[in-house]
Target: NADP-specific glutamate dehydrogenase
Amino acid sequence: MDAKVYVENLLCSLEQNNKGEKEFLDAATEVLTSIVPVLEKDKRYIEEGVLERLVEPERVIMFRVPWIDDNGNVRVNRGYRVQFNSAIGPYKGGLRFHPSVNLSIIKFLGFEQIFKNSLTSLPIGGGKGGSNFDPKGKSDREIMRFCQSFMTELYRHIGENVDVPAGDIGVGGREIGYMYGQYKRIRDSFDGVLTGKGLSYGGSLARTEATGYGLVYLVDEMLRDNGKDFKDKTVVISGSGNVAIYATEKVQALGGKVVALSDSSGYIYDKDGINLDVVKEIKEVKRGRIKEYLNYKKDAVYTEGCKGIWSIKCDIALPCATQNEVDAKSAKLLVSNGVFALGEGANMPLTLEAQKVLLDNNVLFAPAKAANAGGVLTSALEMSQNSQRLSWTFEEVDKKLKELMVNIYYNAKNAAKEYGYEGNLVVGANIAGFLKVADAMLAQGIV
Ligand code: GLU
Model:
């Protein structure tokens, strides 16, 4: 059968079987349509049902998470872990705590994770989890009780050679610490079962910085490969969490000027360039809102709402907040304001339509699977250190991160060229990520 028709049919039945799961269906559509040239070249992927197996998670776990708030009220959230694919290594991927979390979002993130993790060149499969719990406004004790309850169910499904969760939106060092403590208490075993751990109990140096730094390393390589760089360029970054903060730090180190950051309430614009120490104080120490930047810098401008950030004129845009934050309209605005490169720090921050606008206008575009792989890549380095019972220096980890991000760029670039899509890193990243997993699945038989 014609590969294109085969993929169209498969997407149709996927829609039937996963009704209403928009985020997951979008992610699957992007990957499956871009690997058509691979299927045309090697029919075994169709004959052995690799795609049908790939879109079906190996296991989906959903569970009740009861906890008690500071006023003594019983609260209940829903927990998830989607163990999507273990063909090339133990399931690996973050936990997201955010009120928007549902099965579709966790499946989309888990599906993306398979290919992202494959691109890192390290032996990690794909998984994702989380809860619709909202950490905003919760006390430290409430966060601890929630994390303990979450792990009291999750512990039985994970293990250092089975599934190794980490952080994502709403899950940082504090939450990983509480969950690790509970896991260790139940299992009575000091395992490298979570990554993003604190440095005193098995965490890796440079893990905190890794996603943001990695994003900038990859985008910098893409720029250089096209005769450009970050020096003196105006950069807009959305978000103000872990990814955005360390992307800003690295852009500034390379001589770029970051003029805007945001959170889920609004964005700040500072024409002189963002003062990162102030942002770190607000976000990492006080756990406050980005609006508080105005208390430190009177002539900065704060605007309510998130979309407006894309109307700021810039040379390079790095969306680092969340999925679907840049739609076609925002992408058109960016293009008409002269943006020449965009790197996705968040997972799928551009809608499929927005991606198309950038590609049609020859904007250099680094897709999330490649561009934000630095976090999970460094998590895999944390796993290696835990297995060795050693810890490497910051410089060692950072050097490996940089080398592997540069490799990801060229792997994606070369795969795109080989299959007739020169310059299209979306297709290139999908193909390069797919091939390793698909070949492992072929070798392991119909399982
Ligand atoms: N949540 C991050 C991601 O989206 C990191 C996952 C990990 O370190 O396992 O890739």
